[in-house]
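Weekly modeling sync, notes
Attendees: S.R. (lead), two postdocs, one rotation student

Agenda item 3: backlog of single-chain predictions. S.R. asked that every request posted to the team notebook include the full sequence so nobody has to chase files. The rotation student volunteered to paste the first one in as an example of the format we agreed on. Action items at the bottom.

Example entry:
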Amino acid sequence: ESSCCTRRLCERWNETPNQRERYLCLHSLLTMASFGELVLILGDIHIPQRATVIPEKFKRMLVPGKMQHVICTGNLGPEQFEELRELAPNLHIVAGDCDPVTTATPFPESRVVQVGDFRIGVIHGHQVLPWKDTSALARVRRRMHVDVLVSGHTHQNQVVEMDGCYHINPGSITGAYSSLSPDCTPSFVLLAVNGGKVVCYVYELIKGEVEVTKTEFTKDSKQKTPELGSLLM
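Predicted structure, as returned to the notebook:
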């Protein structure tokens, strides 16, 4: 039976510079042995059309070689494609609705990624009408026969449980403008997948500081959940 528990991990990081740096490099301290496979989920980058750079505090967290998978919901240029290729051995990208014409590699409309015991479906999200509609997303998830559906397009991060399965939207990592979300908060998602357990961390940049929200969901409730204290040690 699936279970979900969401709680605020930390408010704005107002400690010493050394402690702040330690926090910002949090994901570089994670080990596969302790937390299973690490999956970075991001999208709607929109550089240079709607944004200039990925926020520096986020870039310092995205260390090559620490994650096993990168999932991108689309809308990225050639430079960002090359940067993502350096982050992890497994890169999974789907086509966005605003991919630059200079993007040489044609991305699929959808794809399915197996991580641990979970089948993760990936789409950009503009194909789902009405946009942001959870019932419409659930129909796509059922058609794809997946446990987790990742989608973007709205530029608003979200983790939602429905019928024992999950919908994840990483938002826009650059906080790029959207007609659906004129004032977007930069965000991305990091999953720690250990067999039938997923620990989902949503990272947001709010007023210049990084905030993290943790959501847990399982296919096997007997597995142990990593705690924030162990992540920082």
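Discussion: group reviewed the output briefly. The chain is about 20% helix and 30% strand.
Action items: rotation student to repeat for the remaining queue; S.R. to check formatting next week.
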